[in-house]
User: Fold this.
Amino acid sequence: MPDEREPPGQPGESHGPEAESAPDGGASRTASEQPRQPAHPPRVGPSGEPVRDLPPAESKRMNRRELLKLAPVIVLGAFAIPKWQQPLLNEGYAFGDWASGKLFGRHRLARTFSDHEVAPLERFPYNYYDVLYPDIDFSTWTLTVEGLVQRPGDYKLQQIQAFPKIVQNTRHVCVEGWDVIGNFGGARASDFLRAIGADLTARYLEVECLDQYYESIDMETILHPQTLLCYEMYGQPLPPGHGAPLRLQMPTKLGYKQAKYLDTIRVTNVLKDDRQGYWEDQGYDWYGGL
Amino acid sequence: MASTANAIDRKQAQPVTMVYEHPFIVRFAHWVNAVALLVMIGSGLQVFVAFPSFGPKIPQKNFFVPPKAITLGGWLGGSLQWHFTFMWFFMGSGLLYVIYQVVSGHWRQVLFLPHDIKGVWPMAKHYFFFGKKPPVKAAYNSLQKLAYTSTLFFGVLSTLTGLVLWKPVQFWWLTLLFGGFRLTRIWHFISMCGFVAFIPGHLIMVALHGWNNFYSMITGWKREPEYLD
Assistant:
């Protein structure tokens, strides 16, 4: 046999079935020459898929084995069980919040825009949930500061305005999906907190508002250089619908985190489970970061 | 009598040729992804109800308000919980699948490549205009490869645009790549449309090709496939 592949003297010994199963038609010849090999040596499909010839009973057993391997997918069905659904979804949010904290760049700035990209004030939307303009006496208004602070107390608007004024054109993103570029002016929250001796290693800033809205924000974001105690929009005192006299403005957070009509801020390490934020307590994400 | 029984026994004992078309990781990723995709579409549509527009808020021009029957979550907060939970299953199963395909070389079965272009039209002609059926040579024909590869494309597009909508500031470079925040919402919506276009065709084809074909996506093994005849 001139085209015999095995070296003389070692017929059918040194070659494994893999070597003989090259898709050149040689497989059947090998099978006839090597009666000890299985009738059908290992074959592969057109894309390298393993092929097997099995008795029907054996193929059924194999199918059943592989079917059972897929059982872990059923775990997703836990989301369909009413009792487990909400706790599981809360875990999903918690994981996302953890990832959000990791992704947050303390010094990564939100994009700022030129003046001609800013939407006019009358096209800057705002949402409210209870009263459009809470009844505020601006002449007696103060910001109450509580919690882990060396100098707690009531601060007048003029005291906040004494800090360097930051003016920025940034994008305001609403959780609903719309966005608008606006012009904001105010004091850096970090400047204010440092000046009053706040514990900057604390985890949260809790916020209470004059329209009974409330919020809580991670300290990392509060210390971000673009986070403002905002008292101006478009160079004018904050309009009533936008939170006069003072609001939080954070281009790294969604709109619902940026509480308006500030009344009290509290530096703290503990949040109550049912006091995460007005919307958060109903189902919005706590971190709400961009 | 005895000899007839023996003949039947022999016939039943005839070995069946089985092809392991879908490795475990592929099947696992497929089913996790199938569930995740439906949740993502349903909850995403409910999120869209909150602002069913691609323009400014003032003045708002609605593009399309999804009907309640095809949404999940009930309201914006509820749908966001589903969306932001199942995005991890969606991304995880997608990533698992892609890594496996690359590492194992199994991508050869399904990835649409330039040499598949010539096979698309004959197959489309067969399916849509009752043309002659082209010979079956592999697990997937060119049209199938095109369909499955396009879902891979939509998967990558929906993931990247989703990352932008979730974190436009942290992924600022991706935001720029997609042409800004507002345009990214449109890309994200388009990626959903891609899946919505794929799913009915996929399900119809699965129904037409019978149990053996469907069962292979559960057990991995396909019995006596046409291309081995």
Summary: The domain at 42-53+63-228 of chain B is CATH 1.20.950 (Fumarate Reductase Cytochrome B subunit). The mean pLDDT of chain B is 92. The CA atoms of residues 123 and 134 of chain B lie 7 Å apart. Strands of chain B lie at 16-20, 221-223.
